[in-house]
Design brief:
With 416 residues, the chain is mainly beta. The chain contains five helices and 30 strands.
């Protein structure tokens, strides 16, 4: 079998492609390519699209990658080498040995079933809450099962969705994971003790759009949840996060909707904790971009595939934001009467002290929530965020409903 060798007098190089002689590897014709796993710097795959779309299989000590276009790559002796090398792409992607393990079923795999039994001895870690289109689970025993709403999922499953499909999974600790079409997610580990609400979980994702909402595990210990991709690892710190994992070389993006996440790779780490804060990456070696805050319209557009099945993409605090379109939206939002308190757009009769979010439109009109402010009448001390054209002054009667009139200043002041 033809393999690449290191040039004399030079350091190790990533293995390069070479044709496989016909008949040398069982079941592989002369169009296949072979890579040498004996490289300390990693094994170079043809491209990022192939790396994230190929099916991973094991034959003996060799790793086979079979692309949807029929291309075949063989990494010779991959399972003999210790430590196993990373699989690299020219665009800067890195599929670690851990990712390979997540997406490679056992050697005896390959069966297909419309309805399949659970792997022997396995316990369910969650179930399919909702589903549109087609989705499949490749079990840890290699059986490929078409999923339906209510079906159980198990540790070691690889979840795959067809183009145009979407799925929402709910796990035993109330974590949810929603996927859009043409996605690939590995359920690496979920260990949870309901009595103590402690545990740990990890997931791997090769491609696709997702929304992840952490459950009890992250609430108990926010260092116990991770999502690994070919360009970065996401540390979950009790949060809701949306993401789009694309082939290396194309922009992958991650957005925190609630809570906080850390996005890390070889180039560095960014920590994001502001609603709709987003970073992008194209390779594992380049650092994540400086985070930017997207408008709600941009978040909805970027993650439209999972907006409905995940239950929406607005922050929980968007009840205090109403019609706001995020940072830099136009005009003052619709406010309803509140007490002395954190009110915001479309919050009716809410008590609290705080800031109203910017919405769309020139001026906000209060729809009259009858807030009972103590000592200050109905209107509280709310500040409306200035948008285009400035925010107005919210007038309120005593215990009555107020209408926000368009003003020219920056913040509103509630008149008692």
């Amino acid at each position: 079998m033809a393999v690449s060798r290191e040039p004399d007098g030079r350091g190790p190089e990533p293995a390069v492609l070479a044709p496989v002689a016909s008949g040398v590897v069982a079941g592989i014709d002369s169009g296949a390519l072979v890579l040498d796993a004996q490289s300390s710097t990693g094994v170079m795959l043809p491209d990022g699209e192939f790396a994230t779309s190929a099916q991973f299989t094991r034959q003996g000590d060799d790793l086979f990658l079979i692309g949807p276009d029929g291309r075949v790559v063989v990494v010779q002796d991959y399972f003999l080498v210790e430590p196993r090398p990373d699989l690299l792409t020219p665009e800067g992607g890195r599929i670690t040995a851990s990712l390979v393990n997540s997406f490679t079923p056992p050697e005896a795999a390959g069966q297909y079933a419309q309805v399949g039994a659970a792997p022997v001895g396995a316990e369910s870690i969650g179930q399919v809450k909702d589903l549109t289109g087609q989705a499949f689970a490749v079990r840890s025993d290699g059986t490929r099962v078409q999923l339906s709403a209510g079906d159980s999922v198990f540790q070691g499953d690889v979840i795959e969705t067809a183009g145009g499909g979407a799925i929402n999974l709910v796990f035993v600790d109330d974590t949810t994971f929603s996927l859009g079409g043409d996605a690939r997610l590995a359920l690496d580990k979920l260990v949870y003790d309901p009595a103590t609400q402690a545990g740990s979980s990890s997931f791997s994702m090769l491609k696709g759009v997702f929304v992840f909402v952490s459950g009890q595990i992250a609430k108990t210990d926010n260092n116990q949840m991770t999502v690994t991709t070919p360009v970065a690892t996401i540390g979950i710190r009790g949060t809701r996060v949306a993401g789009e994992v694309n082939p290396p070389g194309q922009a992958s993006r991650f957005t925190v909707i609630d809570g906080e996440i850390a996005v890390s790779n070889q180039g560095g780490t960014v920590i994001m904790g502001q609603s709709n804060e987003t970073t992008t990456l194209t390779s594992f070696s380049a650092p994540p971009s400086q985070p930017v805050v997207l408008t709600q319209a941009q978040v909805d557009q970027n993650y439209d595939q999972v907006k409905i099945i995940s239950g929406g993409l607005k922050s929980k605090s968007s009840g205090a934001q109403g019609d706001s379109e995020g940072s830099g939206s136009e005009g003052a939002g619709n406010t309803s009467g509140g007490g002395e308190g954190e009110g915001a757009a479309n919050a009716e009769g809410a008590a609290g002290e705080g800031e109203g979010a910017a919405g769309e439109g020139a001026a906000g009109e209060g729809e009259g929530g009858a807030g009972e402010g103590e000592g200050e009448g109905a209107a509280g001390e709310g500040e409306g965020a200035a948008g285009e054209g400035g925010a107005g002054e919210g007038a309120a009667g005593e215990g009555g409903a107020g209408e926000g009139a368009a003003g020219e200043g920056g913040a509103d002041e509630g008149a008692a």
